[in-house]
Amino acid sequence: MEKSKKILRRLELLHPKKIDLSLTRLRRLLDKLNNPHLRLPPTIHVAGTNGKGSVTSFLRFIYENSKLNVQCYTSPHIIKFNERIRINSKLISNDYLNILLEECEFYNNGEEITFFEITTAAAFLAFSRVNSDLLILETGLGGRFDATNIIEKKICSVITPISMDHMNFLGSRISLIAREKLGIVKNSERVIISKQKSYIKYLTRNYLKNMKTTPYEEGKDWKVLNKDYKKKRFSMRFKEKVCEFSFPSLYGDHQIDNASTAVSTILSINNFDVTSESINSGILKTNWPARMQKLNGRLSKIAGKAFDIWLDGGHNLDAAEMLSKVINSWDEKKIILIIGMINGKDPIKFLNKLIHNISLLIALPINDHQCVMPYEIKNLVINNFKPNFDIKCCLNIEEAIILTKKKFSKGKILICGSLYLSGEILRADGYTIK
């Protein structure tokens, strides 16, 4: 096992027995590290339930395309931990990551701390020691008490669509979840509010009333005006400015909304010289693994030319709604859904919008994670939906593809339900994140 994996395993053992949403543990460690979070470049902070990873990726590619030195922090990783920390656009090296993790481990001195907190401290150390133009910081699961929210000043906060997710940590009501996500707005010069359901818009406006920040709300201060599917271009308005850009390379109508959120963020910030041409080029260059990604590696060779394989890490209700729209747009009649979900997720609610359009459902386990077992998913689907299609359980993706080929001569395969499963699939496909 490589050194960084051994260190990360040790850090996982420091996890407190009871999780309390607090920044106390992290603040204690950062103080010992001489407060690197106070020496970061101008920061854009991104929170939300859906689309925050894609918006972060659009921002990174556009700013990089504008020749800026960009640092970026995302989570979770898909294939290897290094993906979480980009220093001036490059994944952190194993050697430097080891040095930072060991430094944080030494100063933490065995105290209880969550894995995300101590690795966020390592990221802040990395970002504070290299000169860059800006930092794009994506929250973990929350906002208000998220480890990333310990920073004290931001040039912009971005709130992507909010919906029900992580209820065991953030609360069982959408109002509680929205309050937690909106917690990143503190000490932010401006805030970009992405497309939201009407109730979330109402909550957001009330929350921002007494905040010393400038809000830019979708539908009011900016919006997508038109989507031209023939020319593959969309137009949008930001304040009085109307501009037009190419459709993103990322698949799906929702990615146009994510791209427009990123563009609005960039247009609201006057700190950097970013042209319309570099925005357009950045949108086209943006890639983000496991977001309606068409596979073309080892697994597609096993499946053969008669089958397309698509991968998406979506696992909540809004993601299921997006996937349903994608499936409904497909002409292919044979659609095979392959699913795996971690414990705490609800397969029935997730599948409710997807299950009426498929010809075969295959449930998979997720290695090295506590997951809903395949036979449990099968029994839940049978008892709740009384389906008219086959449901199978397989041990791995290769077995699932071979089973699919035995049943059908052609079709579209959609793999979804978990980013952790997506990581397994991408490794099996031979995909490398650079």
Specify the CATH class of the largest domain. Alpha Beta
Instruction: Write down how many β-strands occur, each being a DSSP E stretch of 2 or more residues.
Output: 17
Number of domains: 2
Radius of gyration: 22 Å
**Largest beta-sheet details:** 8 strands, mixed
Trace the largest sheet across and list its strands. 4-3-2-5-1-6-7-8
Helix coverage percent: 25-40%
CATH architectural category of the largest domain: 3-Layer(aba) Sandwich
Overall outline: globular
Low-pLDDT segments, ≥5 res:
none
- Here the CATH topology of the largest domain equals UDP-N-acetylmuramoyl-L-alanine:D-glutamate ligase
Please identify which CATH superfamily of the largest domain we are dealing with. Answer: Mur-like, catalytic domain
Classify the secondary structure makeup into a structural class: alpha/beta
Average pLDDT value?
93
Q: Tell me the span between the first and last alpha carbons.
A: 21 Å
**What's the tally of helices?**
16
User: In percent, how much strand structure appears in the residues?
Assistant: 15-25%
